[in-house]
Design goal:
Keywords: Signal. This is Nuclear transport factor 2 family protein. The N and C termini lie far apart (about 70 Å). The chain is α+β, with helices and mostly antiparallel strands. The protein is built from five helices and six strands. A six-stranded mixed beta sheet has the order 2-1-6-5-4-3. The chain has one domain: Nuclear Transport Factor 2, Chain: A, CATH 3.10.450.50.
Length: about 160
């Protein structure tokens, strides 16, 4: 009986493709704390540029083919179109963004996923007026030691 079980086990192991029998390999990625700190630092840089209408800096934080999905205004299909919207926003007085909360998850072989909530304020006559809050998902791409946002989903605006 032992001989039969051993033979069956050996035969089964030969028939199973090696990719299935082996555990999946993880990509080498920063530790969770390091990744969180990195993305939070990048988030701060992006929105410092946003809050100060620094269009040159803001532009650098997005991939050329960025897609921005907004539950109220629709889809923006490129960095060029995103920057046209940003320029218009700045010309009308700008907005201020305050991060409320965020979580960061690794996307092996690509970058990171940032999911959070933020609040916005309109600038009217130099003063902040509450404009509402929203949830967001940013897909960060890590390429050649550079982090850029490749996809944005902005939703649940109040």
């Amino acid at each position: 009986m032992k001989q039969f079980l051993l033979s069956a086990l050996l035969a089964a192991s030969v028939c199973i493709p090696s990719g299935i029998a082996q555990p999946a390999k993880k990509a080498s990625s920063p530790s969770s704390k390091t990744l969180y700190s990195t993305i939070m630092a990048m988030d701060k840089q992006v929105f410092d540029a946003y809050n100060n209408c620094d269009l040159k800096k803001f532009d650098d934080y997005f991939t050329r083919d960025v897609e921005f999905f907004h539950d109220r205004t629709g889809r923006t299909e490129s960095r060029h179109d995103l920057m046209k919207t940003m320029k218009s926003l700045c010309e009308s007085g700008g907005m201020r963004r305050v991060l409320v909360s965020a979580k960061v998850y690794p996307l092996d072989f690509y970058g990171a996923l940032e999911i959070g909530t933020h609040r916005f304020y309109k600038i009217v006559n130099g003063k902040k007026q509450a404009a509402g809050s929203a949830k967001f998902i940013n897909v960060w791409k890590h390429d050649d030691d550079k982090w850029q946002i490749a996809r944005v989903i902005s939703y649940d605006h109040d």
